[in-house]
Amino acid sequence: MEVIRKKGITDEAVLKAIDTVPRHLFMDSSFLEFAYDDKPFPIGAGQTISQPYTVAFQTELLKVKKGEKILEVGTGSGYQTSVLIELGAKVYTVERQKNLYLKAKQLLPVLGYNPVIITYGDGYKGLPVHAPFDKILVTAGAPFIPEGLKKQLKSGGSLVIPVGSDVQEMIRIIRLDEDQFIEEQHGSFRFVPLLENRASD
Fold first, then answer.
1. I need a labelling partner for 184 at 20 to 30 A (CA). Which of 78, 109, 112, 149 fits?
2. Residue 139 pairs with which residues in a beta bridge?
3. 104-114 pLDDT tens trace
4. What is the pTM of this model?
């Protein structure tokens, strides 16, 4: 936790959530000795568990309030999901890799982290049947900002998404009303790609 604090994370609730969630339980046994290093590690299906700093940075940008309805695009291992739930969010999460979806669906309740919805599908589409959301968090690099996700935000809600191909810019979009959005840039990161129209076995 001190490492990410020194890197600039100041939200004490986020720091506490990162410190509380047992990251080693979301990782392959071959990486367990490095579980609390501030580095990403592979979790299968060409995906990674993000480094704690990146999870903390995105979560801090999201400004999570207890009881908020949050859509997470990219369940992955379930680590970020658990951080959001630890902060008191009602999480709806979607994963396009079937084996990761099945793993997370089994693991999260065992750890006491229960999303409202965990589903298998195309993250670009979000979950319109459950919209609108207070916040949306995308945990993979998107080549562009999906309009469908913006439309699933409540007025006053925000979307945090890394956008770009090789290197992504962390973007926060705030919906002012039905038609107006503010877009902010928050630095460069590297994520696995968010693939459109694909849910993979």
1. 78
2. none
3. 999 999 999 99
4. 0.91
